[in-house]
Amino acid sequence: MAEAGPSVCVAVVANTARSLVAVGADPAAVEQVLGFALDQYIDPDAHVPLATLARLERAAPDLTGDPAVALRLAGRCAADGDVGAIGQLAAHSPSLREALRLAVRHANVLGTGLRLALRTTTDRAELSYHRTEAASRTMHGAELALGEIATTLRFLADGADIDLRADFRHERPSHAAAYAAVFGDGVCFGQAEDRITFVAELLDRPPPRAQSYLFAVLREHAVTLAERVAATGADSRQVREHIVTRLPFGPPTAEATSRALGISRQTLYRRLRTEGTTFEQLLDTTRHRLALEHLGNPRYTLHEIATLLGFVEYSSFHRAVRRWTGHSPQTYRRGIGVRP
Q1: Higher-pLDDT residue of 102, 312
Q2: What CATH number is associated with residue 115?
Q3: Alpha-carbon dihedral 33, 36, 40, 41, rounded to 10 degrees
Q4: What angle do CA 10, 118, 143 make, to 5 degrees?
Q5: pLDDT, tens digit, 9 for 90 and up, residues 39-50
Q6: pTM score, two decimals?
Q7: Are residues 143 and 241 in the same domain?
Q8: Are 74 and 144 in contact (CB under 8 A)?
Q9: What is the dihedral angle through the alpha carbons of 95, 298, 225, 221, rounded to the nearest 10 degrees?
Q10: Is the confidence at residue 79, as pLDDT, over 60?
């Protein structure tokens, strides 16, 4: 498992794999595509490369003989799967609005290359799904993700009409007729992003089986997991700590960081390589994590956040946020309900 790059939690991969088997895929063939046995992971919130999930999604039609299999899986994964910490957190949140806000905030628990954004108007709500790495984007992944969201929204609506609509990046596929069973008639292809829109009043409905006492416990667990994903080794933690302290004065270099840690630049690179990362990746992901935290805090203006993250030019900060989230800083901030 030497693949580098964005990751995804095992629960997401396991749900997809088990559901494929449940609709006829050969278990041995599924594990051959994955390159490992799922039962080697006890913790559903452990991470594997996102490329692994993308590989499974692309193979799914051949594994099952069904080009629309991702649409068939959408309801099954939402109803039966082990959805990990974030899925449980959403199920016990006080309202759908709070569940989605927390899902957006802690999206890196689901995957470091997955981004969610919630935007609202007076009468409509919109949840977009984005994979930051183009190579990991698949038609079947978008079908499954948006299908699960649609299934969950309809469950929470408890039979009420929520005027659900779905937009997809990919062009109209040969199995387009199968979309109606999951999304209804409001489906558009070749759009700017993958997203679900629905009536905003649904945001204030509590999940049907929510238990408030579990919510506080699960929320703390999600925070712990997010911190674990952000720093996976002792050397990377030290580097991140140094980056955080130096960012307001400009982005630190690998040379300056290695001197501060009392090691050579070559040693720094070698140690980080053993943890499966690089200095440049740590700088970018640290900025990303801090950006999401600061964007959620109305006390900071956007220009102040850019400075705190070490961006000399605001335009560079704007481009970075768009790359991380798929949206401008202003749009992302509105999407999580912050009014500076």
Answers
A1: 312
A2: 3.90.1520
A3: -60
A4: 50
A5: 666 555 567 788
A6: 0.61
A7: no
A8: yes
A9: -50
A10: no
